[in-house]
């Protein structure tokens, strides 16, 4: 029986998959880190802030469409645990100070009155539930 595979053309997808598999067999983690670093540097040289904002927005929208609240709670918890393991009290004091400064630059007295009222109401409900 003749081998019909020699007459069959390989699709672009199949060629890409086979090439990727061969590359994975022949290279280690350091190789991928290096080409990723080089690619990141080249991208940074060729694109501005608007480019990164746009791809970040698109990525965020795609993630939101594909994940639910539990997903975000889980990654938030994991991120918080990892941050807590790697940073001390001074780190949290510094980011709190910076956040407070940025917030005060962007909001007026009405904003603080509104969030104060919301916080007070939440505390009152919490006490009522106890």
From TrEMBL:
Residues 1-117 have a biased composition (Basic and acidic residues). Pfam families: KGG. Residues 1-130 are annotated as: Disordered. InterPro entries: Stress-induced_KGG_rpt (IPR019626), Stress/Virulence-Domain (IPR052590). This is KGG domain-containing protein. It comes from Siminovitchia sediminis.
């Amino acid at each position: 029986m003749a081998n019909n595979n020699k007459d069959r053309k390989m699709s672009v997808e199949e060629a890409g998959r086979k090439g990727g598999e061969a590359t994975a067999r022949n290279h280690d983690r350091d190789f991928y880190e290096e080409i990723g670093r080089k690619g990141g540097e080249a991208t940074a040289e060729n694109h501005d802030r608007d480019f990164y904002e746009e791809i970040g927005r698109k990525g965020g929208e795609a993630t939101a469409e594909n994940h639910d609240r539990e997903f975000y709670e889980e990654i938030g918890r994991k991120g918080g645990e990892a941050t807590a393991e790697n940073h001390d009290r001074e780190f949290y004091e510094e980011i709190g100070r910076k956040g407070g400064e940025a917030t005060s630059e962007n909001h007026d007295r009405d904003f603080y009155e509104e969030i104060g009222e919301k916080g007070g109401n939440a505390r009152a409900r919490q006490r009522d539930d106890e």
